[in-house]
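Take one record.
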Amino acid sequence: MAIIHDDVGRRRFLSQAVMGFGVLFGIGTLALRFAQFLIPSQKPRQYAAVLIGTESRIPLGDAVPMDLGGHKLLVLKTDEGVTAFSRRCTDLGCLVSWNKEREQFLCPCHQGVYDKTGLNIAGPPPRPLDRFEIVKRGEQLYVNVKSA
């Protein structure tokens, strides 16, 4: 009795299996790239330490306006230390100013009021003022600002 092998059937099966794996691999790769497009990876924020001078340069109870590479800041010195705030109001982006007598930041656009910690206490601002980290190295003060 002779056994007849069906070489044509085996070739067809192997050909379709290889093509099927190729199609599945291609669809998987496409799905992965599409997911990376929809959910991009978070890049770590890059900060640059910018020298703003010495602490003695800032009078106690006063806020000094500064423009550091497009970042408009008010550097405030209180009994608690030195803090840097964005001058941009969180409502419309108007430039806030420091009122030394009231110890408050005031926004001229809609009478927004912030306390000396940057907390919004009156008016339409939806959140506190943005803060910038200050690093003291010896006598020098540096502000960490987001680099471009």
